[in-house]
Design goal:
Structural class of chain C: mainly alpha
Number of helices of chain A: 21
Distance between the termini of chain A: 39 Å
Oligomer: heterotrimer
Helix content of chain A: 40-55%
Largest interface: B-C, 107 and 99 residues
Chains: A alpha/beta (415), B mainly alpha (295), C mainly alpha (278)
Strand content of chain A: 5-15%
Helix content of chain C: over 70%
CATH topology of the largest domain in chain A: D-Maltodextrin-Binding Protein, domain 2
Distance between the termini of chain C: 27 Å
Number of helices of chain C: 13
Radius of gyration of chain A: 22 Å
């Protein structure tokens, strides 16, 4: 009881002060982060290192090796003090007992109370908390305003439903054989769960089953969205290369200005501003089948403390610190990265670019699935998810594809 | 001398007619140039792409030549995380350790297999060849847990051991072939001269097996230098990572997006040390040849 | 001999034993698992995906190995002299070998890519094709794209080994043949080929084993597609072990694959030993 109060007081005082008081001997903590999250994580880590005498040493792990590395590391006792990874792996890691229990510290932290619900949900297992949102990203719809204008569409009016995307795409493709209305990476399961599934969820569907008794691919949303995609494909509104794109060209084509509309992530905003500063593009929520239905996939990285970490109190201090206004604003927002506390979305850094504000707001309308074996069901190269997409869109068999995928997903969830 | 005898009859004919080369010489020259063009084209294209701006390297449709010269892709690779020098240092340390251990273990093993008749020699040989038949992604997990227990993870030595395991079968087989190709007469001459077994090995066989030793060293270096998975699993800190890990991380964008410019720069950067080692060892191929088999 | 055997024994046979033990459990990548005896092996028998992948891998090996050996030997014959041109040819042909496999696969993926790749541009400019081809949506085209990229990368390896083999042929034999008036191709077929037999079989064996274990190139270039038609055996193992977390099952798959390769290699070595005894 007393220890808990002490810890709560410690957490509170850390938040109140703008810099952590130096401990007697400066420690170095190790932190693993996945490669695509390194830039974002560096903003926070560098800020911490510049204001604290205890340092954090960042180690970059290639994305698709993170799970293996952490799993073998925990089992061999070779773990970092902190780890930042794709949040969809939280259920598997929590169930396997890889992560330290942070319930007490987080519940006592007032900043944690204002973190986006999706991040709290994904980090909860059997009532306990094991991680916090770290470097969020969320999926949104981008459109090329210049192409809209050329096609006779109002450049400031993005499509508000999937059928409207289809209509706009037709007009844009009419501009020329080399200009396409829409894009998606046809062989990239991760890209599509990020950008296509929210369209289905917005239309009322649920995608993934949490266990063997749970339902998968419910509602008409899945079928309707797939039908729209299938039509867009057969009408040639999407480049032929999209079918074989496993993600390597996820944003490359939009950057060349040949694509009218595309689902993407918040990260694209800073990418476009840096690589194609002359492009006029807009950002909006991913729509469902009807006007007014919106959703997004709440993604990005969470931060957690692996079991076996040698600097647990200090690691907890870091997590507490990264939820503070200072870290969220001067670390993340300043660098065009979303804060995990939506209340901070309207800040001075974002004020300059309303597109980022929209993206931050998308955190509030989004979903994140809480399932085991996410990789098996979705991200794998042989997953039911990607097979369904390819069979429905490219082979044309929408109903068969959904049925097959539903059975396979439930089988995986039952394991 | 061997090469002259192997070449088409051009030299013989050339000796009689010094001013005109035979048609076959033109043909082989043409073929050689075609080979250079085909084999070299991807690397040339990669080099050109590496000096484009990042946006130009991902342009669609692509262009052969850079629109404007830019070294930003190289800068990105050089400056990534701990900096290229750190990774190169780690890779080099591991690679040279692997060369040393491969030569130290494979040469005597190959010699034994080549020269000493034993029962079960072929079985021993099969055992030594076994490591390459196992998919090494599968064997890495148990190996990692074992080495962790004896404290060899996150060390250059531990990684070098793993790389040596992967290289040993090939190295032993190569050394065995190399020693077997040496004519018995030389060995008999050495025995008659009163050389001990060890002296035979060092004074007579090793020099004659130089092309084999050089090949072993070369492939040990290249395979260790480029090895990715074990390097990632066995090393825990950014400062211990090797070059292949840097190359994968630096080009990785979100959701599998690839930074094509960074890829090309990393291809060129990874070629250079291996090419340097190859060129350095080339001399020993030729001088090993010229020292002659029969003296 | 002893150090080699000890080294292999400790660092290979022990983990191999652990792998076999693991194959009898349903251990997950994330830890835990119970003993299931031969349950995994029974599952393998019914695993259509694995057999499909294995068949594909065998097809890949059978197609690729002769290509590599013939081209490699041809390049060796071409570049074994010491003229500057030949040395340059040898270096350029060997250069792809020194690039890492994942970098090389990605390089070719970039070349073959329909949007950013130069091969389509080249073929269109040379009027070989009218429209750009999307290489990776057809299982056959994807297969050949991978074969081309691997041939480029690996042929220099065979070349170097064959050169080493040719150079170790006793020059007296060659000179005697020239004096006897033997023409070039006769010298090749009567002397070089037979005397290089050992190294040819070594290289073929290593090349074939490498192809049976192919993974990275398919992972990067085809992602197993289209529709899972280009999964190789090791790719299938990777999927099961590291994506589905079924480490125990993956271990069983690995053992089965290793035994298949072992059987094949033993056969080849036995045939070699027998033909040499003749």
């Amino acid at each position: 009881m007393t220890t808990r109060t002490l810890r709560a007081a410690l957490a509170a005082s850390l938040i109140a002060s703008t810099a952590v008081a130096a401990t007697a001997r400066a420690d170095t903590m190790t932190m693993w982060v996945r490669a695509s999250g390194t830039n974002a994580a560096s903003t926070l880590v560098n800020l911490w290192n510049s204001t604290h005498s205890d340092k954090i040493e960042l180690t970059t792990i290639p994305d698709n090796q993170m799970v293996t590395k952490l799993a073998t590391g925990v089992q061999a006792g070779e773990v970092p003090d902190l780890v930042s990874f794709d949040l969809i792996y939280m259920p598997d890691f929590m169930k396997a007992g890889f992560l330290a229990d942070l319930t007490a510290d987080l519940k006592a932290d007032p900043n944690f109370a204002s973190v986006a619900k999706a991040y709290v949900d994904i980090a909860t297992y059997e009532g306990k908390l094991y991680g916090a949102g770290f470097t969020p990203d969320v999926s949104i719809l981008v459109w090329n305003k210049d192409l809209f204008k050329k096609a006779g569409l109002d450049p400031d009016k993005p499509p508000r439903s999937v059928p409207e995307i289809h209509e706009d795409a037709k007009k844009i493709h009419a501009l020329g054989a080399d200009t396409y209305g829409f894009y998606f990476s046809g062989s990239c399961p991760g890209c599509n769960i990020f950008t296509t599934s929210p369209m289905m969820v917005a239309s009322g569907s649920k995608i993934l089953p949490a266990n063997g008794n749970d339902d998968a691919l419910t509602g008409d949303g899945v079928k309707d969205v797939l039908e729209q995609f299938k039509e867009m494909w057969s009408e040639g509104l999407v480049p032929k290369s999209a079918q074989a794109d496993n993600g390597s060209n996820f944003v490359a084509l939009f950057k060349t200005g040949k694509i009218g509309i595309q689902g993407c992530g918040g990260f694209l905003i800073s990418d476009l501003k840096r690589d194609v500063p002359g492009m006029n593009f807009g950002v909006t929520f991913l729509p469902g089948m009807k006007d007014g239905e919106v959703s997004s996939f709440v993604g990005g990285d969470v931060v957690a403390i692996p079991v076996g970490s040698k600097h647990v109190p200090l690691a907890k201090a870091f997590i507490a610190w990264e939820l503070t206004d200072e870290a969220q604003l001067d670390g993340l927002a300043k660098n065009d990265i979303l804060p995990s506390r939506p209340a901070l979305a309207d800040n001075k850094y974002f004020a300059a670019d309303p597109r980022i504000v929209t993206t931050a707001k998308a955190l509030g309308v989004g979903y994140v699935p809480w399932v085991y074996h996410f990789a098996d069901m979705v991200n794998s190269d042989s997953s039911p998810w990607i097979n369904m997409l390819q069979r429905a869109i490219f082979d044309g068999d929408v109903d068969g594809a959904i049925k097959e995928a539903r059975e396979k997903m439930k089988a995986i969830a039952a394991e | 001398m061997t090469s002259a005898a192997l070449a088409p009859d051009a030299p013989a004919i050339a000796a009689r007619r010094p001013r005109r080369l035979a048609p076959t010489a033109y043909l082989t020259a043409a073929v050689s140039i075609a080979v250079i063009a085909v084999m070299g084209a991807p690397i040339v294209l990669s080099t050109l792409a590496s000096i484009k701006t990042a946006a130009d390297a991902s342009a669609s449709p692509p262009h052969y030549l850079p629109a404007a010269l830019s070294f930003e892709s190289y800068a990105k690779v050089f400056g990534y995380q701990s900096g290229l020098a750190t990774y190169v240092g780690n890779s080099a340390l591991v690679a040279f350790t692997v060369i040393a251990s491969c030569l130290a273990i494979a040469a005597p093993a190959g010699y034994g297999l080549a020269r000493f008749a034993m029962r079960g020699k072929e079985i021993a040989f099969l055992v030594l060849l076994a490591p390459i038949m196992i998919p090494y992604q599968a064997i890495l997990t148990p190996l990692y847990l074992d080495l962790a227990k004896i404290g060899l993870v996150n060390t250059h030595l531990g990684l070098a051991i793993v790389h040596t395991i992967l290289q040993l079968p090939f190295s032993i087989y190569l050394m065995r072939s190399s020693f077997e190709a040496i004519p018995r007469e030389i060995e008999e001459a050495a025995v008659i001269d009163g050389c001990s077994s060890w002296k035979r090995l060092t004074r007579v066989f090793l020099p004659l097996a130089t092309p084999g030793l050089v090949t072993v060293a070369l492939f040990a270096f290249i395979n260790s230098w480029n090895e990715f998975l074990a390097a990632l699993i066995f090393m825990n800190r950014e400062t211990s990572f090797t070059v292949p890990i840097l190359l994968v991380s630096v080009r990785q964008g979100h959701f599998g997006a690839v930074d094509w410019g960074a890829l090309q720069a990393s291809v060129i950067i990874s070629i250079i040390p291996c090419l340097a080692v190859y060129l350095a060892l080339q001399r020993y191929y030729i001088s090993g040849l010229l020292s002659g088999a029969v003296k | 001999m002893a150090p080699a055997l000890i080294f292999v024994g400790v660092f290979v046979l022990i983990p191999l034993g652990q792998l076999i033990a693991m194959s009898m459990t349903d251990r997950s990548l994330l830890g835990g698992g119970r003993f299931v005896g031969f349950g995994n092996y029974v599952r393998i028998w019914n695993d259509a995906g694995f057999w499909r992948a294995l068949l594909f891998t065998v097809k890949y090996t059978i197609v690729l190995t002769p290509i590599l050996m013939i081209l490699g030997f041809g390049l060796a014959l071409l570049t074994v002299d010491n003229t500057p041109l030949k040395r340059l040819t040898r270096t350029v042909a060997f250069l792809p070998v020194v690039i890492g496999l994942s970098s090389s696969s990605l390089l070719w993926f970039w070349l073959f890519d329909e949007q950013v790749g130069l091969i389509n541009k080249l073929l269109t400019d040379l009027r070989v094709i009218a429209q750009p081809i999307v290489w990776f949506v057809s299982a056959d085209l994807a297969f050949w794209a991978v074969v081309i990229s691997i041939t480029w990368k690996v042929v220099g390896f065979g070349m170097v080994l064959f050169i080493a083999g040719i150079q170790s042929i006793n020059p007296e034999i060659m000179e005697a043949a020239v004096v006897d008036g033997a023409r070039y191709w006769a010298r090749v077929s009567r002397i070089i080929l037979p005397l290089s037999r050992r190294i040819i079989l070594l290289t073929t064996l290593i090349s074939a084993i490498g192809s049976m274990l192919a993974f990275d190139q398919f992972y990067i270039m085809t992602s197993g597609g289209p529709r899972g038609q280009t999964f190789t055996a090791v790719y299938w193992i990777y999927q099961n072990s590291f994506v589905s977390f079924k480490l125990g099952y993956g271990a069983a798959l690995s053992i089965v694959l290793t035994l298949i390769i072992l059987a094949f290699s033993t056969l080849q070595i036995a045939l070699t030993a027998r033909s040499e005894a003749k």
